[in-house]
Amino acid sequence: MTDISQNPVPDTPVKIALVTGASRGIGAALALALAKTHHVVAVARTTGALEELDDRIQAQGGAATLAPLDVTNEGAMQHLCLSIFERWGHIDTWVHTAIHGAPLAPAGHVDTKDFDKSIACNLTATQRLITYVAPLLSVAPDGKAVFLDDDAAGKSFFGSYGASKAAQMALVRSWQAETVKTGPKVIIHQPAPMPSSLRARFFPGEDRTKLMDAEGQAARVMDLLK
């Protein structure tokens, strides 16, 4: 991970976008779109994918700080947010797309490790990140946080993913209701189905030509941020 605190401080204020889950899909598309107006702090577990994203951001004249970290690592997330505070003092936009999609299984056959991992990534990590990121968003002039919804809860065989995602969104909606008057603004968006690797595992054999690409979905989210 780049040591954020060692970067030189610019003469003019910089808009900062934190993207957790930035290595692929809509997370990468949003990081690329935000990099046109923000310095992007891109978080994901896959170093190679982050480096590819960085190449694309640089090619369009933007800049990013790569953080190859697991969002479930509490200490790493604390250190990252502290480094952002020491370097820039705020976050203008936080986009959270990190997700664990456990294999589909009947409710009575859900693997315990898969269920625990789903809760750790989709719910617990989100709760911790809200705690760490909220103060950084609150000191920005117009701080915003973006979360992606899903309608998988209650569907057959989606027990681990659906339950953990529903719990995540219940938490996010509480935060959204609590911050209407005080900020930061919490935006919830449910994308149309996309040809992601996660969806390919959930729906093998699906005709992916009928799905909207990640860039199109990212454009919709960028409109909401405006």
From TrEMBL:
<dbReference type="GO" id="GO:0016491">
    <property type="term" value="F:oxidoreductase activity"/>
</dbReference>
<dbReference type="Pfam" id="PF00106">
    <property type="entry name" value="adh_short"/>
</dbReference>
<dbReference type="InterPro" id="IPR002347">
    <property type="entry name" value="SDR_fam"/>
</dbReference>
<protein>
    <submittedName>
        <fullName>Oxidoreductase</fullName>
    </submittedName>
</protein>
<dbReference type="GO" id="GO:0016020">
    <property type="term" value="C:membrane"/>
</dbReference>
<keyword id="KW-0560">Oxidoreductase</keyword>
<comment type="similarity">
    <text>Belongs to the short-chain dehydrogenases/reductases (SDR) family.</text>
</comment>
<dbReference type="InterPro" id="IPR036291">
    <property type="entry name" value="NAD(P)-bd_dom_sf"/>
</dbReference>
